[in-house]
Design a protein that fits this description.
Layout lengths: L3 E8 L7 H4 L7 H7 L5 E5 H7 L28 E5 L11 E2 L2 E7 L5 H9 L3 E4 L7 H12 L3 E4 L3 H9 L5 E6 L26 E9 L3 E8 L6
Parallel strand pairs: 1-7, 1-8, 2-3, 2-7, 3-5, 5-6
Antiparallel strand pairs: 4-5, 8-10, 9-10
The structure holds NADP nicotinamide-adenine-dinucleotide phosphate.
């Protein structure tokens, strides 16, 4: 029951994705407008992106520090649209289970503390626990498809979580809003970072569409070409 995964990113011409730096060269609301047409019933981000843009300041402080271990899926409620965070250790602090009108699902590893999960249940936030020391992305994404009925998932960064999805063969399509600007700084996240596979060839893509957008931006959509099974 794996959802169809589209990685949707805003990028400079040199592949960097710092949205603050790109603001002056991006048409107002263009990233969101292009994303809406992709028809996702959920969107997912890594912990760093969630911390920077959506979660409360400061990490969760566990009192017990007891890892929760294997846990059943907790479905606080079902919704038409979901916001999903990938947070290995349960560090992100949330006010409630609503994120810009989408129901929040936290994907965690078994290392997340038991009082963190209790806090999520108290706030009616759904969660999926998968993987003993790090999140098992393949399993978690299948669970999300099966238990929440998500069919089309937008993977919205940052680079490390995108890279992990790509390496795990979970990305079906890449959608890049390429804006007319060059960032050029070192150590700025790119659309796909941290892939550690011992391979020296790029992941091949097949062009699906190119659209010229407001302000000289290009919206590129590519299908990820899967390696042929031998
Ligand atoms: N331009 C755009 O479209 C766009 C979109 C989104 C973000 N961004 C930018 O991207 C930057 C953040 O990117 P980032 O690459 O540093 O962080 P990220 O991808 O948002 O988050 C990475 C974190 O996710 C957690 N994670 C859990 N399981 C993982 C796994 N299997 N593989 C990889 N990470 C996993 C890890 O933290 P734990 O180990 O603590 O769980 C990891 O450090 C920010 O500057 C943000 O503004 C840009």
């Amino acid at each position: 029951m794996k959802p169809y995964v589209i990685c949707h990113m805003l990028s400079s011409l040199d592949g960097r994705i710092d949205s603050t730096s790109l603001k002056s060269v991006t048409g107002k609301g263009e990233y969101e407008a292009t994303g809406r047409t992709l028809g996702g019933d959920g969107w997912i981000c890594g912990r760093t992106t969630m911390q920077r843009h959506f979660a409360e300041d400061g990490p969760f402080q566990s009192i017990t520090n007891i890892p929760a271990g294997p846990q059943p899926v907790y479905i606080a409620r079902r919704a038409e649209s979901y916001a999903i965070s990938v947070d290995t250790l349960g560090k992100l602090r949330w006010l409630n289970g609503d994120l810009d009108g989408d129901h929040l699902i936290c994907v965690l590893s078994e290392q997340a503390p038991e009082d963190y999960l209790a806090d999520l249940r108290r706030k009616q936030i759904s969660y999926v626990v998968s993987g003993s020391t790090s999140v098992n992305l393949v399993e978690a994404i299948n669970v999300i498809g099966e238990h929440f009925g998500i069919r089309r998932l937008l993977l919205e960064g940052g680079g490390n979580i995108n890279g992990a999805f790509l390496a795990a063969d979970l990305v079906d399509e890449v959608s890049i809003l390429l804006v007319p600007g060059i960032d050029g700084r070192r150590d700025i996240p790119t659309s796909f970072d941290g892939v550690t596979l011992s391979k020296e060839t790029a992941f091949p893509l097949k062009l699906l569409s190119v659209e010229r957008r407001e302000g000289d931006a290009l919206w590129l959509r590519y299908e990820v070409v899967r390696a042929k099974e031998s």
